[in-house]
């Protein structure tokens, strides 16, 4: 399994859950200096995004990944699609890099790759309840405290600079009562 945007909130939790379910997870990140953090969440390996040659994406590359969680979109998602194993799913969760997807249909037709869009906004309540039950059970994150940071509402402006300078890792939770 590979998870892009690995140091972000969704990426961090995805690594934690997937590793907890017994998957070998590779964290793909633009923050190579956060390798220890990603490994502490369960990543077996950390791959620096800077080491990928996204200018030369092949329609089909070496079949490497059994599944993927993509938080970035764009060229990273196109590269992921080209490197998926036969029948592998990709959960497209975000578009932090780009809304565009410049690829071919080759991975989808010749390898049966599935591109699954994740839409949490319009998700019906019965589905939400099943997801919440799994998150409280077999998919419960094991390192939630390491992947989250809580800030009081009044301190929220102090976090903005961290976002702008790409220093945030995990999820920032705003405590509205503090």
List the helices and strands and how they pair.
Blueprint: E1 2-4, H1 9-20, E2 26-29, H2 35-41, E3 45-48, E4 68-70, H3 74-82, E5 89-92, H4 106-110, E6 114-117, H5 125-136, H6 144-147, E7 148-152, H7 157-164, E8 171-175
Parallel strand pairs: 1-2, 1-4, 2-3, 4-5, 5-6, 7-8
Relevant terms:
alpha/beta, 178 residues, single chain, six-stranded parallel sheet, globular, Rossmann fold, 7 helices, 8 strands, 32% helix
Number of helices: 7
Principal-axes shape call: globular
CATH topology of the domain at 2-124: Rossmann fold
User: Quick check: average pLDDT?
Assistant: 94
Spell out the helices and strands N to C.
EHEHEEHEHEHHEHE
Tell me the major beta sheet: 6 strands, parallel
> What's the alpha carbon Rg, rounded to whole Å?
17 Å
Helix content: 25-40%
Give me the secondary-structure category: alpha/beta
CATH architecture of the domain at 2-124: 3-Layer(aba) Sandwich
- Main-sheet strand order equals 3-2-1-4-5-6
- Tally the beta strands: 8
Low-pLDDT segments: none
């Amino acid at each position: 399994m590979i998870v892009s945007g690995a140091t972000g909130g969704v990426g961090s939790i995805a690594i934690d859950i997937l590793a907890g379910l017994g998957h070998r997870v590779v964290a793909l990140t633009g923050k190579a200096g956060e390798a220890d953090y990603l490994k502490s969440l369960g990543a077996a390996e950390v791959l620096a995004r800077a080491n990928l040659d996204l200018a030369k994406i092949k329609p089909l590359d070496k079949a490497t990944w059994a599944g993927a969680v993509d938080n970035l979109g764009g060229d990273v998602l196109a590269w992921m699609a080209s490197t998926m194993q036969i029948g592998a799913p990709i959960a497209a969760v975000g578009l932090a890099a780009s809304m565009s997807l410049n690829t071919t249909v080759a991975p989808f037709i010749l390898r049966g790759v599935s591109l699954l869009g994740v839409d949490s906004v319009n998700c019906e309540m019965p589905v939400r309840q099943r997801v919440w039950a799994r998150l409280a059970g077999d998919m419960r994150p094991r390192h939630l405290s390491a992947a989250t940071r809580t800030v009081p509402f009044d301190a929220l402006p102090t976090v903005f600079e961290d976002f702008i300078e790409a220093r945030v890792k995990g999820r920032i939770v705003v405590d509205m009562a503090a």
